[in-house]
Amino acid sequence: MPRSSIPELVQLQLAAFEFGPVRIICFPNGLSPSSIDKAIDRFHQAMDESNKYFVQIVDTDTGKMVACAVWEYTKSMSHEDWEQKRRERPEYPEARQEVLQVMYQGVAEKRINLMGSSRYWGRSTVRYATQPKFNRFIELLSLQTLPAYSRQGLGSQLVAWGTKKSDETGVPAFIESTEQGAGLYKKHGFQEVATVPVDLEQWAHWGGKGTYTNTFFSREPHTSGEM
């Protein structure tokens, strides 16, 4: 994906995010122009990292980006790395901080609990106290499709890109997903390893309804190899 497409990628993410419960409850007025500019800057920095892969699908009739995924090939993280990651978490002054904290904290704690310092999930939800089977992995950091192009197999193409890379390199693939994407990932051989439900009714006064669930999935490589 060319660097010039980064602003379009951010706008695609915003469009996919627009009508979700997190946007409505946590960001009642959407993201501020400042937060959007910072998101663009973060993607520019990420594009300079050789272990990040930006995969886009473009409508050939319009030339418009209609779906995009960001995959990361990386190594295991120490607890110190996790703490650094927490400190680098983007700030959103325009968000309802109470909601943002609950949403983030539950997922962050589950990640550390599942992955430990090895960041290896495998087929179990227990922490590994010994050397993990894999110390590298490929993770789907984000995947969005414009609502008008949903259910056309675009997301499946972007997931297949990552599973192929996982098989080629012999490392497991990991995904953190909302309930909406669960079926897609299961079709590609991912197994559910944990969920983090959040009761949205606690913010009923802001329009919260039902439960919002983040699900962790893993998939082991079908072939072995080295990158």
Output the helix-strand order. Answer: HHHEEHHEHEHEE
- Termini distance? 21 Å
Count of alpha and pi helical runs:
7
Fraction in beta strands: 15-25%
The unreliable regions are: 117-133
Q: Averaged pLDDT, please? A: 81
Order of strands, main sheet, comes to 1-2-3-4-6-5
Q: Classify the helix fraction into a percent range.
A: 25-40%
Secondary-structure content class: alpha+beta
What value does the Rg take, in angstroms? 18 Å
The tally of beta strands, per DSSP, is: 6
The dominant shape is: globular
Question: What would you note in describing this structure?
Answer:
- This protein has 227 residues and is of the alpha+beta class.
- Helix content is 38%, strand content 23%.
- It has seven helices and six strands, in the order αααββααβαβαββ.
- The protein has helices at 6-17, 21-26, 33-47, 79-87, 97-115, 154-169, 179-187; strands spanning 52-58, 65-75, 136-145, 173-178, 191-199, 211-219.
- 22% of the residues are buried.
